[in-house]
Amino acid sequence: MLEYIVDLLRVFLPILYLFTIFLYGLAFFLDEPFGKRNRTRFLVGTLVVDFIYLLSRSILNGHPPTTSVFDIMGVVSFTIGVAYVYIEWKTKVRDTGLFILSLAFMFQVVSAAFMKSDVHLNPLFKSSLLGVHVASAMLGYSALAISAVYGGLYLMMYHEIRSSRFGLIYTKLPDLRTLEKLSYVSIILGFIFLSIVILIGYVWLPRTINDFSYSDPKLIITDIVWAIYFIALVSKKAMNWTGRTIVIVSMVGFALTVVSMVVVNVFLPTFHNFK
Amino acid sequence: MLRLTAVSINHRTANVESREKIYYNSEEIGQISQTLRAVAREALIVSTCNRTELYLIPYHEPLTNSDIYSIISKGKKFVDGEFHAQYDTYEGFEAIRHLFTVATGADSLMVGDIQILGQMKDAYNVGVELGTVGTILHHASQVALKVGKRAKSETRISEGAVSVSYAAVELAQKIFGNLGGRTAMLIGAGETAELAAKDFKSKEIGTLIIANRTLERAGNLVAEMGFGEAIQLDSMPARLFSVDIVVSSVAGSDYVMTRDMVAAAMKGRPDRPLLVIDIGVPRNVDPNVRKVTNVFLNDMDSLNLIVEKNMQMRRSEIPAVNRLVDEELNDFIRWHNSLEVGPTIKMLRDKIEQLRLEEIARYKGRLNGTDQQVIDEVTKALVNKILHEPMTNLKAAENGIAMVDRVKLVKALFGLSEPADHLPGEPGSSSGKRR
To answer: Is the pLDDT higher at B326 or at B343?
Structure first.
């Protein structure tokens, strides 16, 4: 029964995400009242369904769905959605949802398409430290993804004003300062979560895993990503980076993160998949 | 039906000269209130620079449109032939719809104008003070204010700058967000600079610098604004480094701001944006300034484009606003219809009671005291039981038949009629708009 529900939701979830984006699109492009009224409600509903799906998979497999890059993409999609709802609630900025949730949808589709059923239970997954480690990683990468999207929106708005076009982007998006702030705050949150991930990893992994190696590609790339953001944040303070520079750093940082993670997870051997 | 008539002299029907003549201030509304009370149970005058409107519920005989037009024009004590204007008239619930539409700003000269809401509130307060606003116009005014607020918050009809100087401020806000703590420099001290200074002041700009060829004129504008700093135009390049927004509007054939000037200022602040708005004709700022990184250069064409797009956007919101008006109008009609239920129930009860008493009186001679008492109690109980269900159904909110139809049906079946002055509206008046 549970397996049937999981299979059903796996197909159904991308459709829900797509419909949510459709509502955000209706509101953004056409100012359609139905879209405006229901977009956030539908997003929250989609996230509740996603949560039920992730919970069902965890019960079915005996561990959270975080053992492959495609599993992780599914969870990142969910955390991006949750983080966006929080941002929308805090800032009352609703017209950026179309862009942020498109990223979540992309992750969701790839995850649903390539995810494989896994009923193997690794004893490591009984550790509560792993829960914090994985949750922090998901939140961290989601925050960095959101930061990159806000960075992209900043650049779109920047060029719209520079070229005196004043189209939909100018009318609908919040001001450059707000977009910069949203991008920067997301970097800080991403960096904090990434720091927690690394800290727990270095304390806990050597004690738990027999073939632990500091030269593991996944560890190295996580350290590099962390270092990039660390340098960016220090430089911002030291050299007073603002505006365009900081959002470009955010976008480049996230692009490097995605490329590295895909390369490491797909092409390089790592002890770090827990299968 | 609602026996309400509205006459509207507005920006579509009359030119500005006529609108100025017919404008009523609150004192003049007070003077005309006696006349209004003599002919109407309720009256409300809404008067602004773009419209003067009279909403009126007469006591008995319906007033013709020309009667109402005559009241409104005589109130201003015009001599014959001094005032002529076309006017719109609305009757029944169409008058209420018009009142609601006016409150949303959808009928304003500047679509989405939010001042109208405050003006309608003032008009309502004056009406209450003078005692010309009664149950119907009180409720209509309250709903009008509500629908006006809903239009502002639920649609984009009031969004976006619709004047060039405000478009400049809006542009600055799109770049810097909150303008508090920012520095604006106005080049020139003429009328445009004054408008821009006022708009920046309303947005609580941190620092205002006014640069002008004549220092005295710049100083005068600073004094008028009550804050800011006046500088000589020659000092402008040296101050550019610390400025976030420049609005230039001086006369002259040469550029007052060159690319080299701006590039030099931006060297020490590469990440901090500079917004330059050139409203001068001919242009005051070298167009190549646009090529300097982090400099946003916009001219009169850009600002006009913003204004035009905002106007288009506001106009495109009118259908959404009309939907809100329809929603609130339907609620109003339901509320109004429910007003007729109470008096109808009373009339029905009175009529049946009268019949009961008449029948008892007919048999009075044939009954002894105890029998009379018993018959009285039995007929009372019977009447109550017979009337209980029809009355409950009459009052019920939804039972498949519209309340107004139920009231009409009961009145027709039982031959009920009401005193002319009893109800807020009377059947038979037409609804619609005429000019």
So the answer is: B326
For residue B424, what pLDDT is reported?
Answer: 43
**Paired sense of beta strands B5-10 and B51-58, if any:** antiparallel
Size of chain A in residues: 275
Q: Is residue A272 included in any domain, yes or no?
A: no
pLDDT at B244 over 50: yes
* pLDDT for the residue B422: 44
Neighbours of B264 (CB within 10 A): 15
Provide the chain B residues 166-195 that lie in CB contact (below 8 A) with chain A: 171, 173-178
Query: Could you tell me if residue A67 is inside a domain?
Result: yes
Give domain status of residue A192, yes or no: yes
Residue A118: is its pLDDT beyond 60? no
List Cα–Cα distances, A105 to A46, A110, A236, B33, B368, in angstroms: 11, 9, 32, 64, 90
pLDDT in tens, A33-90: 889 889 999 999 999 999 999 888 888 877 777 767 678 888 889 989 998 998 888 8
DSSP string covering A115-163, please?
--------GGGG-HHHHHHHHHHHHHHHHHHHHHHHHHHHHHHHHHHHT
Q: Is B271 on the interface with A (CB under 8 A)?
A: yes
How open is the CA angle B314-B318-B321, to the nearest 5 degrees?
115
Specify the 3-state DSSP secondary structure of B149: helix
Given the residues B49, B381, B386, B401, select the one marked as catalytic. B49
To the query of whether residue B411 is one of the catalytic residues in this protein, the response is no
Burial class (CB in 10 A: 0-12, 13-18, 19+), B108: buried
Number of domains making up chain A:
1
Contact A157 B177 (CB under 8 A): no
pLDDT digits (tens, 9 = 90+) for B414-433: 888 755 444 444 433 334 45
- Assess whether pLDDT exceeds 50 at residue B4: yes
Residue reference for tokens 């001001």: A175
A174 chain-B contacts, CB cut-off 8 A:
177
In this structure, are residues B229 and B210 in contact, taking their beta carbons and an 8 Å threshold?
yes
* pLDDT at residue B118, rounded to an integer: 92
User: For chain B, which domains are there?
Assistant: 5-160+314-326 (3.30.460.30), 164-308 (3.40.50.720), 339-418 (no CATH)
Note the pLDDT tens digit of each residue in A77-91: 998 999 899 888 888
Find the closest chain A residue to B176 by CA distance: A177
Tokens representing A95 are 């017209």
Range of the domain at A220: 2-267
Strand partners, B209: B185, B229
Which of A94, A161, A183, A241 should one mutate to test binding to chain B, selecting the residue with the greatest count of B CBs within 10 A? A161
CB-based contact A176 B178, cutoff 8 Å: no
Identify the residue with better confidence: A95 or A272.
Answer: A95
Distance CA A194, CA A226 (A): 7
Question: What CA–CA distance (Å, rounded) separates A256 from A248?
Answer: 12
**Amino acid in position B263:** A
Mutate to test the interface with B, among A158, A164, A239, A241 (most CBs of B within 10 A): A164
Contact A176 B174 (CB under 8 A): yes
Instruction: Provide CB contacts within 8 A for B190, sequence distance 6+.
Output: B249, B250
> Is residue A119 a part of any domain in this protein?
yes
- Compute the distance between CA of residue A155 and CA of residue A144 in angstroms, rounded to an integer: 17
Please state the length of chain B. 435
Q: Does A206 touch chain B (CB under 8 A)?
A: no
Q: Do A31 and B178 lie within an 8 Å CB cutoff? A: no
CA distance B160 to B137: 32
Decide if A130 contacts A272 (C-beta within 8 A).
no
Pair A150, A187: CB distance under 8 Å: no
